[in-house]
Amino acid sequence: MGKFYITTTTPYVNADPHIGFALEIIRADVLARMHKALGDEVFFNTGTDEHGQKIYQRALEAGKDPKSYCDEYAIKFQGLKTGLNLSYSNFIRTTDEHHLTAAQEFWKLCEAKGDIYKKVYKIKYCVGCELEKTDSELTNGNCPLHPNQDLENIEEENYFFKFSNYQQRLLDLYESQPDFVIPEFRQNEMKTFVKGGLQDFSISRLKTKMPWGVNVPGDDKQIIYVWFDALINYISALGWPEDQKKFAEFWPGTQVCGKDNLRQQTAMWQAMLMSAGLPTSKQVFVGGFLTSGGQKISKSLGNVINPIEWAEKYGTDALRYFLLAEVSVFEDSDVTVERFEEAYQNNLANGIGNLAARVATMAEKINLKVPEQRLGIREAVINKLKAFRFDEALKFIWDDVKTADTLINQREVWKLTGEEQEFVLADLVRIIRQIAADLVPFMPETSEKLMISFGNEVIKRGGNLFQRIEK
C-alpha cells in the first residue's frame, strides 16, 4: 500500500459552483475513494482560486473588499463537501497565508534559475480566461470561451517567464510518459502546441492597475499573475516548501481538469516545476465540457446548472451516477433534466432500486440466511478507474444488475419454494453484495444502504433506494 495524491483545479470564486466543476470534483472523489478502499493513504486536494482581475472587478462591482467577497464564495464551494458527499482531505484557498509565502518562494526559485525577466509588452487580454490571446485564438475578435466579454488591450512593463526555454523538455516529458495526459488525443494536442514554438508569458501585473494578488518578491510595484500563483496550490497544499517530508511522500500527484485548462496544467505548470527544480506532475486527466442544447455550460454565458439543487431533489448518489455513467469521459456531453430523469428512472429506480427491493422482500419473507462475506472492489472495476473510464466501470457493475434481474425473471423466483428458492435467492444476495462493494467509490450512500440490507447473515428490507419519478 502506498500514498496517493489527487487534486482538482481551483475554480474562481466569481460565481456559485456549477455542474461542470461538480463533474470534475466527483471524478476526483471516485479515484480518491477507490485508492482509500485499496488501503492507500490518500491526500485529496481541492479549493478556490481567489486572486486576479476577474475577482477584483466582481468585488468592486459588489461594493465589497476583495477578501470579504472571496470569503462569501469560498463557503459555497466548501459546502460541496456535504452537498456532493465528497471525501477531500484538504481545502486550500489561494488567499491562505501559507500559500502566499509558497508562491513567493516558488517565484524565487524560477528567478534564481534565470527564467524570469522584465519587459514592456502589448497584448489582448481576456479577463474571463485571465489569459493573453493571440489573433489566431479569437473568433470575430472575441475569445470563443467568453464571447460576450470585450478583450482588454494591455500595455505595461511586467515580469515574464521563459516558457520558450522548455520546449524540448516538455516534448521529452510527453515522449517518456505516453500516458502523462489522458486521453491520448489531448496529449497529442499538447505535443502539436509545444512543437509549434512556445512564447514566454507574463507572470505579473502592475499593482497600481490591479492590486489584488500576491506581491512579487523584491518589487512592491508588481503582483504575481493569477495563473502563476494559482498553479502553485498543488504543492503548497502539501506544506511545500517547509514540509519537505510530506511533499516527498505525496508528490508527484494526479490532476483532474477540464479541457479549458489543458495548456495551463500540462505545459505551463510543468515548465514552471522544471524551472523550480521540482518533479513534474504524475498524470493529468482531462475531461470535456458539459453543454446544454449544444452550447457550453459556463458562468459567462449564464446557462449554468446548480448541482446542489439536483442533488437535493433527486439525491446525491443519483447525481453522482448520472455524471459518472451518462456523461462522456473525454468528449463534450449535453446535460439536460430530461436525460437525467431518464437515466434515473431506467437505471436507478427501475434498475438497482427495484432489484434490491424485490430480493430483500423475498429473502425476508422466508427468513433467508446467507453467510457473511468480505468483499472488495473487483479488479475489473479498479482497472477501468485507473484508466479514468468511470462510465465503463459503472456499465460493468450494471451488467450485474441486469444479470440479477434476468435470473429473477427467468427462474420466476417468487414462485419457487424450499431449498430451490433459498439457493437462487442466496445467489442473488451474493451478486448484490458484490455490487455494493463495487459501488463504494461511485455511490457511497447506496453502497452503505445495500450492505445494511444484504451484508449481514440475515437479510432484511431497507427503505427504497430510489423513488420512481411520477410524471
UniProtKB/TrEMBL annotation:
Sequence ranges assigned to domain Methionyl/Leucyl tRNA synthetase in this UniProt record: 137-359
What is this protein's name? Methionine--tRNA ligase
The UniProt entry's sequence similarity note says: Belongs to the class-I aminoacyl-tRNA synthetase family.
Give the GO terms filed under biological process for this record. Answer: methionyl-tRNA aminoacylation
What EC number is given for this enzyme?
6.1.1.10
Against NCBIfam families, the record matches this protein to: metG
Listed Pfam families: tRNA-synt_1g
